[in-house]
Structures are given as C-alpha cells and as structure tokens.
Amino acid sequence: MGRKWNNIKDKKAEKDKNTSRIYAKFGTEIYVAAKKGEPDPESNTALKFVLERAKTYNVPKHIIDKAIDKAKGAGGEDFDELRYEGFGVGGTMVIVDALTNNVNRTASDVRAAFGKNGGNMGVSGSVTYMFDSTAVFGIEGKTADEVLEILLEADVDARDVFEEEDNVIVYAEPDQFHAAQEAFKTAGITEFTVAELTMLPQTEVSLTGEDAAKFEKMIDALEDLDDVQRVYHNADLGE
C-alpha cells in the first residue's frame, strides 16, 4: 500500500547537501515542541518524536540544546502550525507542513512556489484524504523476517514490512511509532536510516520529461522556504 520508501540513502544524501537549512528547520521544530509542553522528552511525547527524527539527520547536540534552552526562557516567539494543500503538473497532489511566526508571509510564499511552477493551491481537505499518515522506520543489518518477529513479540501491528536495497522498511499506524521504536531498542536496534511520521499517498502519478523537471523544481521551491518543514507528494519520478 502506498509507495515504497525508495532510495533512502540517496534521499538522505541529497538532503545532507543542505545541512545548515535542515538544522535550522529542526531548531524551530524542537523549539516549538519544547515550548508547547515540558522541555523534557521523557514527559513530552512531541519533543521526543522530533528528537528521534533529528537523530536520523545527525542534527548536532548544540543545536538541539540551544532550541530547548530557548524554549525554557520566558517569552520567545510564537509559531503557528499550518498545512497547505495543492496540485502540481499532471494532477499530482502535494501537502506542505509549515511552522511560521508570520502566517501571511508563509501563505504568500507557498502560493508563489506553487504558481510559478505549474501548480496551484487547493482548499483545506482537497488533498489529504488521498494520503495515509504512517509511521515509517528504515533498519539496516536485519532481514524482514527478523524485524517482523521483533514487532510480533512486542504486539506491535505493522502495515507492511519489506526489504529494499540494504534496508528493511516498516510501515505502521502513527500511534504505534513509540511502541515500535521501543521494541526495536529492546532488540538492540538503536540506529535507523528513517524514523518518522510521514504521509504516504494512496495512489501515484507517474511523471517524465519536462513534467517531471517542472514538478521537481516546484518541490525544491517549496522545501527551500524557511517556514516549510515537510513536503509530501504522490509523484512517481522514476527514481
């Protein structure tokens, strides 16, 4: 169900080219999560989740500590969590999650990124119904059968467990994220190539040639926006 988690290493390598931008976005996300609850991941589930995801991107400790320390201080910035939905070339669907301290600026920037690259913004709910919120893990050094056994012993239900290149990929319900993670840690698995909640498309749209290039340009424009944290889509670009 949904598309496979293709080319994990290549995706992470591409993201790692923009580490300063990624670290800045994680800094904001960690700050917001810590400010919304206790600045302690053991008592703040949202913060714990963000920190675990940050680990897979090798976010330096000093950036994490700075964001948490900032959240502990009085006052500070207030951020709104926003979700935009839209369409790209060929009827592709896109979800954009943002954290912003200026809603008007972010809405304008996201709309422009869509419009300048053959896409357009949709109304709330026009796209998300075609995606499934999913917990996803990527694990190296194990077989799919070994990973499945770990999950079964911990009574964690998985939607899918499969091998892809050098990884075992696990799809599970979002509310099973921490249970699955604890099961893996109990089994001695503490490093993941992927450990996050994502939005998996129920169907894909294949793009090639100019359409694929235009779509990738639009996604790059959206991801380059400072306020945008995550971008999900249903395009199959043949990667």
UniProtKB/TrEMBL annotation:
It comes from Ureibacillus sinduriensis BLB-1 = JCM 15800. GO terms for biological process: regulation of DNA-templated transcription. Belongs to the TACO1 family. YeeN subfamily. Residues 80-235 form the TACO1/YebC-like second and third domain. It comes from the Bacteria. PANTHER family: TRANSLATIONAL ACTIVATOR OF CYTOCHROME C OXIDASE 1. One of its GO terms (cellular component) is cytosol. Pfam families: TACO1_YebC_N, Transcrip_reg. One of its GO terms (molecular function) is DNA binding. Residues 3-73 form the TACO1/YebC-like N-terminal domain. Keywords: Cytoplasm, DNA-binding, Transcription, Transcription regulation. It is found in: Cytoplasm. This is Probable transcriptional regulatory protein CD33_10480.
